[in-house]
Design a protein that fits this description.
This protein is mainly alpha-helical and about 100 residues long. It is about 70% helix and about 0% strand.
Length: about 100
């Protein structure tokens, strides 16, 4: 907001949303000082990244996740038809472009 100093802008944005340090301060006030919820954002990101890296190393597990996701999406026939239609249109447009460049 106009008239706020640089420090005030860092604490709260124009919509009144809290910044990272305010959120971290509130986490510290919780009844327990243990666990993921009271960690600062950087530490949470660090731990989450390690978890993601560990999971993605297991190819069989990742394949299973992909298979389940594919089954869930493919159950929606209308959605799958839309995907196919877009793919067909895209391929048709590429062929037209190739012919125009050659001829």
């Amino acid at each position: 907001m106009p008239g706020k100093t640089g420090n005030q802008n860092k604490e709260e944005d124009e919509q009144g949303n809290k910044n990272e340090s305010q959120v971290n301060d509130e986490r510290k006030k919780l009844s327990s000082n243990r666990g993921f919820a009271v960690m600062d954002n950087e530490r949470q990101k660090e731990i989450a990244k390690k978890g993601g890296e560990a999971v993605s190393k297991n190819r069989r597990h990742m394949a299973e996740i992909g298979r389940k996701g594919g089954e869930a999406v493919s159950g929606d026939r209308e959605h799958m038809a839309e995907i196919g239609r877009k793919g067909g249109e895209s391929r048709g447009n590429r062929k037209k472009d190739d012919k125009n460049e050659q001829g």
